[in-house]
Amino acid sequence: MINLIANTTAYISSLVKKIQVKQFLAVVLVGFLLLTTNIDSGSNNKALGKQLDEIAHDRDSVRPKTTREWEKEGRETENSPGERLGRIGKESAKAFEEFGSGYVEGAKQTANQAKEAGKQILP
Predict the structure, then answer these.
(1) 47/30 Cα distance (integer angstroms)
(2) Which ranges of the chain would DSSP assign to H, the alpha helix?
């Protein structure tokens, strides 16, 4: 009976040691990967922010596109809820109009591509 208890204790002890070694190796591997990969390369690129701003403001739209612009507009109209609701309504209509025009353009491009693919399949 004492031999059985000693063997069980030894087995559990070796199992715990193996698990700890595996966990330690996993943590070391993850740490190595995080330290050797360049995860934060986009935040150092200042030109990227300007490019995104240009893309966001490429249309002749007076509606706000960035969070800063929305907050500025909110501060300008915070004392006049009616004016604010009117602006929100106009800007929402403009946004849906822009979205709809993009949808129509995309549908036309898809139709043209399907037409060209059909010409290639059938002479």
Answers:
(1) 31
(2) 2-36, 46-56, 67-76, 81-121
Amino acid at 89: G
At 33, which amino acid appears?
L
The tens digit of pLDDT for each residue in 67-112 reads: 888 788 778 877 788 887 888 888 888 878 877 777 788 888 888 8
> In degrees rounded to 5, what are phi and psi of residue 57?
-110, 30
What is the Cα–Cα distance from 56 to 90, expressed in whole angstroms? 18
Two structure tokens written together for 102? 């993009």
Structure token digits, residue 99: 């979205």
The structure tokens listed for 22 are: 């595996």
